[in-house]
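Researcher: We're teaching a course module on how sequence relates to structure. For the next exercise, students receive a sequence and then see the predicted structure as tokens, so they can try to spot secondary structure elements on their own. Here is the exercise chain.
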Amino acid sequence: KQWYQRRVRGKKDKITAGIRRPYIRVVGLEVDTSGPGRSLNKFTPEEEDHFKKLAEREDVYDLISRNIAPSIFGSEDIKKSIACLLFGGSRKRMPDGLTRRGDINLLLLGDPGTAKSQLLKFVEKCAPIGVYTSGKGSSAAGLTASVMRDPTTRCFVMEGGAMVLADGGVVCIDEFDKMREDDRVAIHEAMEQQTISIAKAGITTTLNTRCSVFAAANSVFGRWDDTKGEENIDFMPTILSRFDMIYIVKDDHNESRDTTIARHVMKIHLNREQAAVEGEMSIEMLKKYIAYARAKCGPRLSDKSAMKLGHKYVMMRTSAREHEHESNKRLSIPITVRQLESIVRISEALAKMRLTAFTTDNDVEESLRLFQVSTLESAMSGSLSGVEGLTALEDQEEVRKVERQLKQRFPIGSQVSESRIIQDFTKQRYSERSVRTVLNIMIRRGELQHRMQRKVVLRVK
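Model: And here is the predicted structure for the students to work with:
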């Protein structure tokens, strides 16, 4: 205890309150490895032998995917994609110092009541490091990092957000569509470069965010509307292109499927104890196997697989060219170099499940199939049309013409009924879909604003 005295002029001496340095006396230390967000680093020889025997099974891929949220019926392809996300690809460091990410990002878009949030909660439990957050209650600083003033020392300190805390694991973001656009822009760097650059209050540093992003979002209209295409999505193309796989989850009305789901749900509620052990592997065993595979295995593409993947990539582009020639309509197929790298990561994740050093032809085939049933199918069916890079070139030209005429006819400050705008342009033989696309784009940019219960449009700039 140190005492400090202070002399005050014209008054008698005063003694300030006692000040002493705080310290922590550690009596014992125990590492808690159970529960969400806690990683496992040590494995017993018996566990390692069990993992190696498990990896030698021919059906290990199907076994793992069946044990992803076994209480949720169906969604086989989504569960297989989640298995790939949990294992992840291989992070590569180039000779010039640049790195290529190995983590897989997954986005679920669609109707409410399709168990999207339940899948996110399960991934948080079985991931080696899992952080769950909701888009409505998350800000840019909460997801990345913030600089705060320490109440005791009055110095600036930096606190990591959800993506920094999930380094080496998975960050699950629910209600992704409820986030503000400025907050979504803040995670662009974290998703692709896997770093966060901070320059605030005299603190300039870079934090690692080597994590996968598993996000779920609803349509703008609540339920997915097939007739409105791109209007269902309120995301910028820059954020969509950073997801390796995008699934459109729809709640279709099918009597036989609804009957099966109803029986499954009733079975869970009637036999809760049996449903809890429905999976062939326990969550703890699955979590340990994922941590072991991520720590011990870093597969690469074999020469044969790389050649096959290159041929498949060229064939996809060639088939698109033939489709353009037959339909006289040029399509911008959403398989670019970024998507090609996504397929490579999925192939490496499939090889990591078997603890092998190189990928095989079957891994490449399965990764192409998963990409086909997710992003490519969503784009070709029109569900993602209107998003940059996923729209026909002919439609883009029509959208530009409508936007040019709209700006010429309605000056800044004018208010016009939305139905009248649509009627005027449809009389000029423009499609209603293109007109609505232009209105949505201009509203998103802040050039137009809705007034009077969304019936009237005001041009702001």
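Model: If you want an answer key for the exercise: The first strand starts at residue 5 and ends at 6. DSSP finds 18 helices and 16 strands in the chain.
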